[in-house]
Write a structure and sequence with these properties.
With 230 residues, this protein is mostly beta strands. 8% of the residues lie in helices and 53% in strands. The chain contains 2 helices and 8 strands. The protein is elongated.
Length: 230
């Protein structure tokens, strides 16, 4: 009897709209915070796009992984600091990151019930990214056609709204504190590059991805409660 009931229960749940996983896209912009260009926390200077996957383990949190590609321009002429605007340096860089970590909801976010669902959320974890290695020599940008890798800590705040039983729309701002000071070519690493360092060499760079997400939910809630039937 238990086996029959369990099978029936799983069939019933498979016809419902409760979802467990999300897969979708991120689209927005990227900007840097460093020793060259503007210091605005949110002011994209280039595009960013990527893919996101989430595993909703409970109403309060989800495991999350993403791959995002972005580019930015650091331009002293657009800085509000007179010292930078007079200096007049400019450079472009591109970033490709892979990130994994935990997304925590402010309120209970139950995808296993019908009707709307909305919550702000926080995300953090660990990020590995690749970027272009450049440096300045007498004000000229030197591109050595080389990519470097480093780690970063993502700090993301956002909000998400379920549009229907399959689609979820979100908006987020994610700052990444990096373990490098050369995203803007201001502090090339290595003893051979000490003469080319500028700005604050004791403060690592940040970059920010801000934009929207659209994810599709799938996967059914396990019928674990069915096996408790007596």
């Amino acid at each position: 009897m238990r086996i029959v009931f369990a099978v029936l229960c799983m069939l019933i749940f498979s016809s419902l709209q409760g979802q467990t996983y999300e897969v979708g896209l991120f689209a927005g912009g990227a900007n840097n915070i460093g020793d060259i260009g503007r210091m605005n926390f949110i002011l994209p200077s280039g595009p960013a796009f990527g893919a996101i996957f989430k595993w909703n383990k409970s109403k309060r949190y989800a495991w999350r992984a993403s791959v995002i590609q972005g580019s930015f321009t650091a331009d002293d002429s657009k800085s509000s600091l007179q010292s930078r605007s007079r200096r007049g340096l400019r450079m472009d860089n591109s970033i490709l990151e892979a990130s994994a970590g935990l997304e925590v909801n402010f309120v209970e976010y139950n995808l296993h019930k019908t009707g709307p669902a909305f919550t702000p959320y926080l995300y953090t974890g660990i990020t590995y990214f690749r970027y272009d290695f450049n440096y300045f020599d007498a004000g000229l940008l030197i591109d050595v056609n080389q990519r470097e890798g480093s780690f970063a800590i993502p700090m993301t705040v956002g909000a998400k709204l379920r549009l229907n039983q399959q689609l979820i729309l979100g908006a987020e701002i994610g700052a990444r504190y990096t373990f490098t000071d050369n995203l803007d070519a201001s502090n090339p690493e290595g003893s051979n590059f000490e003469a080319f360092r500028l700005g604050n060499i004791f403060s690592d760079d940040w970059y920010v991805f801000s934009g929207i997400t659209l994810t599709y939910t799938f996967g059914r809630k396990p019928c674990s409660d069915c096996f408790e039937y007596n």
